[in-house]
Write a structure and sequence with these properties.
The complex is a heterodimer of chains A (313) and B (246). In chain A, α2 packs across α3. Chain A has 313 residues and is mainly β. In chain A, 44% of the residues are buried. Chain A contains three helices and 19 strands. The chains are: A mainly beta (313), B alpha/beta (246).
């Protein structure tokens, strides 16, 4: 396939068109090769291969607010191979950008995708990062996203990880955020695993600045012999820092789910809460739907569908 | 004489070593609004849960007949497919599940139009509600109305409503009573589980139970008078002296 065909195929695998409004910035990356790059004023991006990885830098210039979400399409259409991305992302003060990142490995049999990101969000800047994955029907992919995030005073960071199609394979998420004064952090992941899938999530946030707010949410459903290990760590170390950890895991068949919420408070005027529920589908929810005529299996599927539904607003 | 749509025959159910339903025999007539009243702990909700076949309420003696056929051994969804459903005192919350999906879940007609109609019927504007989640962001009254909308969309033959006035404001209760009248006009049989006079007066006919036993049955006025005069001041609630020395 030539470059244009590859771009078409990448978007086709996620059910979207590659034809975009000129006002939408976008970049397409297949394996470690940049296929396409279109920028808009205020957004700078550079990508070059180095040491077997693709090094990508993205900067949103000071005071620039990018109106339309930036589209990033990562992917590997081959059955086997590696995609290793190192990203340096900087949002300068008072800037804003939303990124919709699609990661597509629809034919994977033996694919490795790693993402090692360093993200700096400047004063009063806002970064929204939505990551949508498309995997093959048999898994066959190992996804290892890591991110180190720093939020300056008044900064906002929202990230949402979702597998929208295909089997997990192996996912190993490792995010670590340090939050400055009056910053707001919201990290969530929604994943459904089956067969012998493996889901590992290690999220950590340190609310170091006065009035920093942080929420870590994880909604997982596992069936078959899948396994999910979730560790959420939230540390509040400043006055009026507020945090919440929320982990919900539904377990079916012979699957195993483990949740380890760690909350630490290092200041008497800080406050952190956590909520975890792990196990079968809630019987009241199930019986309500069954009392409308749904079978147990259909009712369970509907409850899980809700659990994994993207949040709105 | 009416032939019953639902009948409990000598129903006995024990939970945790305690008798909750004690040889209870009741007949519910098609198209009528019935009330089952009694003090807290009388077994009213247990009766509804047993009729619905909820887990933990399936081992009993006696029988429950729906249109003459035993419900024994039928799962909740099988009972629902016969047209029986239940509105819970405290409706379930569902993270992420939209009102639209929930209301249409059991509907014969799953069209958006039908879902909108059901929401309007309980006084909820479909515009802002269809995509909201049936979760903690809805108030108790809103959840009750959404649940009732799901029941209206289902078009059941028999609805049990457990404490329909519990935890809701006057406006929401008015909408629930409007929906109740609609169900009655449609010929749906309704069983109100209540200890509220406000709810009781919406019924055509009532059963008074205490300690899982039938104490009295008859017109609402009669039961209301009995309940007010004997049950409310009673100093031995759930220890009825049925057939005793009085």
């Amino acid at each position: 396939m030539n470059t244009a065909q590859l771009i078409d195929a990448l978007y086709d695998s996620i059910g979207e068109s590659c034809v975009m409004d000129p006002g939408v910035a976008h970049v397409e990356i297949h394996a470690n090769q940049v296929l396409g790059l279109h920028l808009v004023p205020g957004l700078e991006m550079d990508a070059r291969p180095q040491d077997g990885s693709l090094h990508v830098t993205m900067t949103v210039k000071k005071d620039h607010r990018i109106d339309q979400p930036v589209r990033i399409c990562f992917g590997l259409l081959d059955e086997s191979g590696q995609q290793k991305i190192r990203m340096r992302i900087r949002l300068e003060d008072h800037s804003r950008v939303a990124v919709l990142s699609s990661c597509t490995f629809p034919n994977a049999v033996d694919v490795l995708h790693t993402m090692d990101a360093e993200i700096e969000i400047g004063r009063q800047a806002e970064y929204i990062y939505l990551e949508r994955h498309v995997h093959g029907p048999e898994g066959g992919v190992t996804v290892v996203p890591k991110a180190r995030v720093t939020l300056d005073e008044g900064a906002r960071f929202q990230t949402d990880f979702e597998l929208i199609k295909g089997r997990v394979g192996k996912i190993d998420i490792d995010y670590d955020a340090v939050c400055g004064a009056h910053s707001i952090l919201d990290m969530s992941a929604r994943i459904s695993g089956s067969a012998d899938d493996r889901i590992t999530i290690n999220e950590k946030a340190a609310l170091n600045g006065e009035g920093a707010h942080g929420v870590l949410r994880t909604n997982i459903a596992v069936g078959g012999t899948a396994r999910a290990d979730i560790k959420n760590t939230l540390i509040a170390a400043a006055p009026f820092a507020r945090g919440h950890v929320d982990c919900k895991e539904i377990v079916r068949d012979n699957a195993v789910a483990k949740a380890l919420p760690i909350v630490e408070v290092h200041h008497p005027r800080a406050h952190v809460t956590h909520e975890a529920s792990i196990g079968s589908v809630d019987s009241r929810q199930l019986e309500t739907l069954m009392s409308r005529g749904l079978t147990e299996d259909d009712a369970t599927d509907m409850i899980i569908e809700g659990l994994l539904r993207p949040r709105t607003g | 004489m009416h032939s019953s749509i639902l009948e409990t025959k000598d129903l006995v159910l024990d939970l945790g070593g305690k008798r909750i339903l004690d040889h209870l025999s009741l007949q519910f007539w098609p198209g009528h609004v019935h009330a089952v009243v009694g003090p807290n702990g009388a077994g009213k909700s247990t009766l509804a849960d047993t009729i619905m076949g909820l887990s933990g309420y399936t081992v009993y003696t006696g029988d429950i007949l729906f249109e003459g056929a035993s419900l024994n051994g039928l799962s909740i969804d099988q009972r629902a497919q016969k047209g029986i459903t239940l509105a819970w005192q405290e409706p379930a919350r569902y993270e992420g599940l939209s009102v639209e999906r929930f209301v249409s879940a059991g509907a014969a007609d799953k069209s958006e139009q039908k879902t909108r109609w059901a929401l309007e019927r309980v006084g909820l504007d479909p515009g802002p509600y269809m995509q909201r989640a049936v979760d903690r962001t809805l108030s108790g009254g809103e959840r009750k109305r959404v649940e009732l909308a799901s029941i209206l969309a289902m078009e059941p033959r028999l609805v049990m409503m457990d404490e329909p006035d519990s935890g809701i404001d006057v406006d929401a209760l008015t909408k629930i009573f409007d929906a109740l009248q609609f169900l009655k006009k449609q010929g749906t049989t309704v069983i109100l589980i209540t200890h509220s006079a406000t709810v009781l007066e919406k019924a055509d006919h009532a059963f008074l139970i205490c300690c899982g036993q039938l104490v009295e049955k008859g017109p609402v006025d009669t039961i209301m008078t009995y309940f007010g005069e004997k049950c409310i001041p009673c100093d031995h609630k759930n220890e009825p002296d049925i057939g005793g020395s009085e």
